[in-house]
Automatic annotation (TrEMBL), chain A:
A Gene Ontology BP annotation from the UniProt entry: glycine betaine transport
UniProt GO cellular component terms: plasma membrane
UniProt-listed PANTHER family: GLYCINE BETAINE/L-PROLINE TRANSPORT SYSTEM PERMEASE PROTEIN PROW, POSSIBLE OSMOPROTECTANT (GLYCINE BETAINE_CARNITINE_CHOLINE_L-PROLINE) TRANSPORT INTEGRAL MEMBRANE PROTEIN ABC TRANSPORTER PROZ
Subcellular location(s) per record: Cell membrane; Membrane
CDD domains attached to this UniProt entry: TM_PBP2
Protein name per UniProt: ABC transporter permease
Topology versus the membrane: Multi-pass membrane protein
TM annotation in the entry: 31-55, 67-87, 93-112, 157-177, 189-208
A Pfam family that the UniProt record links to this protein: BPD_transp_1
Family assignment from sequence similarity: Belongs to the binding-protein-dependent transport system permease family.
Automatic annotation (TrEMBL), chain B:
Alphabetized InterPro entries for the sequence: AAA+_ATPase, ABC_osmolyte_uptake_ATP-bind, ABC_transporter-like_ATP-bd, ABC_transporter-like_CS, P-loop_NTPase
Gene3D superfamilies named among the record's database cross-references: P-loop containing nucleotide triphosphate hydrolases (3.40.50.300)
Listed EC numbers: 7.6.2.9
Protein known as: ABC-type quaternary amine transporter
Keywords, alphabetical: ATP-binding, Nucleotide-binding, Transport
Domain of life according to the entry: Bacteria
Taxonomic path: Bacteria, Bacillati, Actinomycetota, Actinomycetes, Micrococcales
Organism of derivation: Agromyces bauzanensis
């Protein structure tokens, strides 16, 4: 318990909030690298996932690849990249991108697959081309699940980006590694708490976004069903 | 005019959905394709707008083989109404109706204004325009589906079991509405159903299909009842049983029409 209090005291200590290597700088670095990793991973995984969901082709390959990527130990991959690319940010970025791809890919194809096939069929029969079907029907309707994938990827990136500090002078992981080295457990735990708080705050923001991207018409379904089901039989309205 | 010439569809898994179909669908009339599940009626319908391509034979619209027309352009010129309406759940009613005109490059204002007129045409109140499909009843959704099918003023309107998912009272209403609309608009309507009563009610020409995608008979309802082509047709339309096998019987000096089970169907007017 003392240790936790020490850690909180460490976080609240104003001297830790200033200068080079202070908490604001580390927080900013952590957020920045997480965003870069998320963008790169999304640029790769989302188009592929949407394509798999739209065509229904390559689903098994996507599942196999995601499974394989998920099984890779991130620290091992990071070390490997560091040996290959050297110290700095060049190693953690690809290692974390690999970590982020599976949830993004799964979210994207599951989101598209979740849409009622009859709606897609009707869109095609009306004369939408494939690009319009994806852009105007599948992505808007699949968005809540796609954002769910982004949300879980982001959570993993933020948590695991602490490892960037293993090979680079970067991010909140710095406090953990330096605390470990100097046996300053208050700093170590303080750094961990900051990572946890950051992850929770960002996750909360995504939870909100996920609600907001539910299309109005789909929200309307839930609403009217809740309100009108018991009151009046729908069929009789004609 | 739509013409099927020796049309066969075999799916990759070997199922033959339609086999050797030759049929002419006359313009400005309603042709109803009727048959049980697996008779290939929907496949036949979907060949008209190239949602399905035949493995043999040709489908022609006014003499042009549809195989030579780019599918997306072809579909934008043909109205399509499906079961469960197929409306886009994330778009308001008015935007659903305006979808195809917008795809064809009509301005948003014009498309929406026209969509409101179409709501009048199909007997829907304009106040529903800003609602989402899920806020409408099944019958209302189906009317929106019809309005959407009519949005580009197509010559051809394809209707795939459009009234299959609504209750009988609403269905009867929608059927009458379609008859009224057709009287007004005179489209070439191709209508798929498994309900022979619906086929006889709506169809100028009724095409009876049997398992394996063959046509048993294509004729007017009167012709089919008077001269069923074979036992299958006679059975299918119920000419020898139930409520269509009527005979006259006299009760207390009144001539009653009764069905095969002896249930009264009405009084013979003289």
């Amino acid at each position: 318990m003392n240790l936790v209090l020490d850690a909180i005291a460490w976080i609240l200590d104003p001297t830790n909030w200033e200068g080079v290597g202070g908490i604001p700088q580390r927080l900013w670095e952590h957020l920045w690298i997480s965003a870069v990793i998320l963008l790169i991973a999304a640029a790769i995984a989302l188009p592929v996932g949407v394509l798999v969901g739209h065509t229904g082709r390559g689903r098994e390959a996507a599942v196999t690849v995601s499974g394989a990527l998920r099984a890779l130990p991130t620290l091992g991959v990071l070390s490997l990249f560091a040996l290959w690319l050297g110290i700095g940010l060049r190693a953690p970025i690809p290692a974390l991108v690999i970590l982020a791809i599976p949830p993004l890919l799964a979210g994207a194809y599951a989101g598209i697959e979740s849409i009622d096939r009859r709606i897609v069929d009707a869109a095609r029969a009306m004369g939408m081309n494939e690009r319009q079907i994806v852009g105007k029907v599948e992505v808007p309707l699949g968005l809540p699940i796609i954002v769910g994938g982004i949300r879980s990827a982001t959570l993993q990136i933020i948590a695991t980006a602490t490892l960037a500090a293993y090979v680079a002078d970067f991010g909140l992981g710095r406090f953990i590694f330096s605390g470990l080295k100097t046996r300053d457990y208050a700093e170590m735990l303080g750094g961990s708490i900051l990572v946890i708080v950051l992850a929770l705050v960002v996750d909360g923001a995504f939870a909100l976004t996920q609600r907001l991207v539910v299309p109005a018409g789909v929200r309307a379904t839930r609403f009217t069903e809740l309100r009108s089901r018991p009151a009046r039989p729908r069929a009789a309205v004609g | 005019m739509i013409e099927f010439r020796g049309v066969t569809k075999q799916f990759p898994d070997g199922t033959v959905a339609v086999e050797g179909v030759d049929i002419v669908i006359p313009p400005h009339k309603t042709t109803v394709l009727v048959g049980s599940s697996g008779s290939g009626k929907t496949t036949l319908l979907r060949m008209i707008n190239r949602m399905v391509d035949p493995t043999a034979g040709q489908v022609l619209i006014d003499g042009t083989d549809v195989a030579t027309v780019e599918p997306v352009a072809l579909r934008r010129g043909i109205g399509y109404v499906m079961q469960n309406s197929g409306l886009l759940p994330h778009r308001k009613v008015v935007d659903n109706v305006a979808t195809v005109p917008l795809l064809r490059g009509t301005s948003k204002r014009e498309a929406r204004a026209h969509a409101l007129e179409l709501l009048d045409t199909v007997g829907l109140d304009r106040s529903l325009a800003e609602k989402y499909p899920a806020q409408l009843s099944g019958g209302q959704q189906q009317r929106v589906g019809v309005a959407r099918g009519l949005a580009v003023d197509p010559n051809i309107l394809l209707m795939d079991e459009p009234f299959g998912a609504v209750d009988p009272i609403v269905r009867a209403e929608l059927q009458q509405e379609l008859l009224r609309l057709q009287e007004e608009l005179g489209k070439t309507v191709v209508f798929v159903t498994h309900d022979i009563d619906e086929a006889f009610l709506l169809g100028d020409q009724v095409v009876i299909m049997q398992q394996g995608g063959r046509i048993s008979q294509a004729a007017s309802p009167v012709e089919i009842l008077a001269n069923p082509a074979d036992d299958f047709v006679a059975d299918f339309v119920g000419a020898r049983r139930g409520k269509r096998a009527l005979h006259v019987t006299e009760v207390d000096g009144q001539r009653l029409v009764v069905d095969a089970d002896g249930r009264p169907a009405g009084v013979l007017a003289s």
